[in-house]
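Following up on my earlier thread - several people asked me to post the actual chain instead of describing it. Fair enough. Here it is, all 80 residues.
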Amino acid sequence: MFTDPDTYRIDRPDVANILSFGFGRHFCLGASLARLEARVVLEELVRSVADYDVDGAGTSRVHSINVRGLATLPTTVVPR
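Reply from S.P.:
Thanks for posting it. Predicted structure:
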């Protein structure tokens, strides 16, 4: 769909057609739960963490055909 699919761009046009959770009869049944969980986690993180630092050199990606993301994300947090 996009000319540079591996680049994260928050201002990407036409994001309404992204198929992250599928479409039509293939729509993920857990999509609403996943969005709710993400919202709760982010609200709690903002509420309880004053500052954080990510060790970019220590990160590693998941190597899987069906999962995209990080296997490790070393992070130091400063609680409120």
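The first strand starts at residue 49 and ends at 54. That should answer part of your original question.
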